[in-house]
């Protein structure tokens, strides 16, 4: 009887994982009718660019970016989730203007290998391993190396579980176990859907022996983490605090992410009425983010907010423009630059020559 209860509990758990995993990475909306309402409550960050620029006025923008599905498109092979050169150049540029952090489920070393920018903060293993920039825009020596490791005592256990999971799942075609130092990922993307339940059950049985670890699900992946009260939301707060923005009204954090784990950061922002959360998703999902973007190709333009802010400042200060508030502007993103078409029909970009022609 006890055995039966345990088994049925286990089955229910596995089914819940499978259902959530399917829901977190669908290819098209299940209910197309929900889409307009969802878009109404979570409008495109690009369409609401002017409002975001306006709300961030006078505040220090700090950008937080998830990696997979946000900076790089989702691909079948996790080792080939490369970011474009254009995205790298964009990140390098924005890191010159404001503090920028990558917050990822990957280990710090892995995500650094993909991004390769010394100017950024990196919060790997779902925020459990945080490193500071090793190069600043003024080329001063920064908080080099590890800033915080929330789960260092779990490292031997994670290594042990990694080996067991590799062994136990090797019979499932397409299954792959990835180590992210303080977290592990069991990938389902290349496994036939009819074998998902069997694979999830294998993972559950291994984890039954490790009560100090927990399982969460992402986009066709089960993630195994230490059961500690630390997540991407805590990592966001930690980075803000180390930048000196604890309880500050002068900061405007922008967090962009696509996954369930990013919801912890969106929740922190919405509960503290701080900055904004932007969810990257083409389909309606339950989210604490205020805005949305369709896919990684839309992430580049939005992180140029600071430039847009500068342009706004320039035009509102300009004597040539007759009205102090320019009302809705249309933003264009061309060759890594923000251009604005204002109400008085001026087309403005940040190029020096254009600026001089218009204002000086
Ligand atoms: O927090 P993130 O940076 O989004 O990391 C979450 C997981 O991302 C990676 O898996 C996802 O992307 C892969 C490559 O596109 C894809 O094959 C996989 O199906 C996705 O779940 C990464 O490999 C995992 O370790 C991270 O936990």
Automatic annotation (TrEMBL):
<keyword id="KW-0346">Stress response</keyword>
<dbReference type="InterPro" id="IPR023214">
    <property type="entry name" value="HAD_sf"/>
</dbReference>
<dbReference type="InterPro" id="IPR036412">
    <property type="entry name" value="HAD-like_sf"/>
</dbReference>
<dbReference type="InterPro" id="IPR006379">
    <property type="entry name" value="HAD-SF_hydro_IIB"/>
</dbReference>
<dbReference type="InterPro" id="IPR044651">
    <property type="entry name" value="OTSB-like"/>
</dbReference>
<dbReference type="GO" id="GO:0004805">
    <property type="term" value="F:trehalose-phosphatase activity"/>
</dbReference>
<dbReference type="GO" id="GO:0005992">
    <property type="term" value="P:trehalose biosynthetic process"/>
</dbReference>
<comment type="function">
    <text>Removes the phosphate from trehalose 6-phosphate to produce free trehalose. Trehalose accumulation in plant may improve abiotic stress tolerance.</text>
</comment>
<comment type="similarity">
    <text>Belongs to the trehalose phosphatase family.</text>
</comment>
<protein>
    <recommendedName>
        <fullName>Trehalose 6-phosphate phosphatase</fullName>
        <ecNumber>3.1.3.12</ecNumber>
    </recommendedName>
</protein>
<comment type="pathway">
    <text>Glycan biosynthesis; trehalose biosynthesis.</text>
</comment>
<keyword id="KW-0378">Hydrolase</keyword>
<dbReference type="Pfam" id="PF02358">
    <property type="entry name" value="Trehalose_PPase"/>
</dbReference>
<dbReference type="InterPro" id="IPR003337">
    <property type="entry name" value="Trehalose_PPase"/>
</dbReference>
């Amino acid at each position: 009887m006890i055995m039966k209860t345990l088994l049925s509990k286990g089955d229910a758990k596995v089914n819940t994982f499978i259902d959530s995993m399917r829901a977190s990475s669908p290819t098209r909306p299940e209910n197309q009718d929900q889409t307009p309402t969802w878009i109404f409550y979570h409008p495109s960050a690009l369409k609401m660019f002017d409002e975001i620029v306006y709300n961030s006025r006078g505040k220090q923008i700090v950008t937080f970016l998830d990696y997979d599905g946000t900076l790089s498109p989702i691909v079948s092979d996790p080792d080939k989730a490369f970011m474009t050169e254009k995205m790298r150049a964009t990140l390098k540029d924005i890191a010159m203007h404001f503090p920028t952090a990558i917050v990822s489920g990957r280990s710090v070393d892995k995500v650094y290998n993909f991004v390769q920018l010394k100017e950024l903060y990196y919060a790997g293993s779902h925020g459990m391993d945080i490193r500071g920039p090793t190069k600043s825009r003024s080329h001063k020596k920064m908080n080099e190396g590890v800033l915080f490791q929330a789960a260092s005592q779990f490292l031997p256990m994670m290594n042990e579980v990694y080996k067991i999971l590799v062994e136990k799942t090797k019979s499932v075609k397409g299954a792959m176990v990835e180590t992210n130092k303080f977290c592990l990922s069991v990938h389902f993307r290349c496994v036939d859907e009819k074998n998902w339940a069997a694979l999830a059950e294998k993972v559950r049985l291994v984890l039954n022996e490790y009560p100090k670890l927990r399982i969460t699900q992402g986009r066709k992946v089960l993630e195994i983490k230490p059961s500690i009260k630390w997540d991407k939301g805590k990592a966001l707060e930690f980075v803000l605090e180390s930048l000196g923005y604890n309880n500050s009204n002068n900061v405007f954090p922008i967090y962009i992410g696509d996954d369930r784990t990013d919801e912890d950061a969106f929740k922190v922002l919405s509960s503290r009425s701080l900055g904004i959360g932007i969810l990257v998703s083409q389909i309606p999902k339950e989210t604490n983010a205020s805005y949305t973007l369709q896919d990684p190709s839309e992430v580049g333009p939005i992180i140029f907010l600071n430039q847009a802010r500068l342009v706004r400042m320039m035009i509102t200060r300009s004597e040539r423009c007759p009205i102090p508030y320019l009302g809705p502007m249309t933003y264009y993103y061309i060759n890594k630059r923000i251009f604005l078409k204002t109400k008085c029909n001026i087309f403005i970009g940040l190029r020096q020559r254009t600026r001089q022609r218009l204002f000086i």
